[in-house]
């Protein structure tokens, strides 16, 4: 395990802050926060992170070193992280109705009897969910494990067995996915093959909707609190994909990165396993946008050196594997 990684039970692996800096003073709107998040960039640059988005602690004598206790790090800089959450993200309640209708019966989160564990997940059939492979150990090892949908937040679906081939940690990017059987919740409207695509337009606008660690651990919760209060998304202009040929990594130019999705949508720990949803132009003037699921979010771009490589300044996801797509048909 890397010395940069923090041992905390979130997605069953060491958690790092999967945030990508809004470029300071960059006139390229593709890399700026945009009008929906006018204070995002300033809030980001106040965070105690290194240049790769990893949390840094500062000792009393001014010595800076990688944080070793994630939750204590967050508590020590609570005001700064809550400001970033406020300025760079929107709440689930801020989603438009057409977006809620698309995701409500498919997008959700996995919870276990370990209150610190949670991962994003989504339905690909009535009784099957997909999540990040590095979440699998935390799910398999729990006595109680449930899946909840954002559109039906009070329904608890028992998670059953993992569907082979099993995800085994440590995982690489191309193998970082897991499928689990769940109790059929008898909730219609889940995604089918027609909602998925492996074709990604250049600089495709995307949205990622998932539970965020920051409000979950740091926000004040009143008696009306539900887990949906911790669900976040961003309307930052940077929420789009970049084609592999435009993304520099540590890998040789001959490497095959066709399964990789590089994006700059703001994310936090707990969002691993969330679907990457492409937002398309309306089919008619004045109509709502349309959506397709193009992949799954995995990690901070600097976290791994294999498969999709170290892609500094980006987050990394993968396309839905072809064999999974075929099984939906």
Order of helices and strands: EEHEEHHEHEEEHEEEEEHEEEEEEH
Helix content: 10-25%
**Spatial extent as radius of gyration:** 19 Å
Biggest sheet: strands side by side, in what order? 6-7-8-11-10-9
What is the tally of beta strands? 19
Q: What profile does the largest beta sheet have?
A: 6 strands, antiparallel, barrel
- How would you describe the oligomerization state of the chains in this entry? single chain
Percent in strands: 25-35%
What structural class should be given to the helix and strand makeup? alpha+beta
Shape: globular
Low-confidence stretches: 1-18, 24-31
What integer is the average pLDDT?
88
Q: If helices are DSSP runs of H or I spanning 4 or more residues, what is the number of helices?
A: 7
- Distance N terminus to C terminus? 39 Å
List keywords for this structure.
alpha+beta, 19 strands, disordered N terminus, 15% helix, 329 residues, six-stranded antiparallel β-sheet, 7 helices, six-stranded antiparallel beta barrel
Can you describe what's shown?
The chain is of the alpha+beta class. 15% of the residues lie in helices and 27% in strands. The protein is built from seven helices and 19 strands. It has helices spanning 40-45, 70-76, 78-88, 97-103, 136-140, 213-218, 322-328; strands at residues 6-10, 13-15, 56-58, 64-66, 90-91, 107-112, 118-125, 128-131, 145-149, 152-163, 178-182, 206-207, 210-211, 231-233, 241-242, 260-263, 275-280, 290-300, 315-318. The strands form five sheets. Strands 6-7-8-11-10-9 form a six-stranded antiparallel barrel. A hairpin with a 2-residue loop joins strand 9 and strand 10 (152-163). The termini are far apart. The relative contact order is 0.18. The model is unreliable at 1-18 and 24-31 (pLDDT under 50).
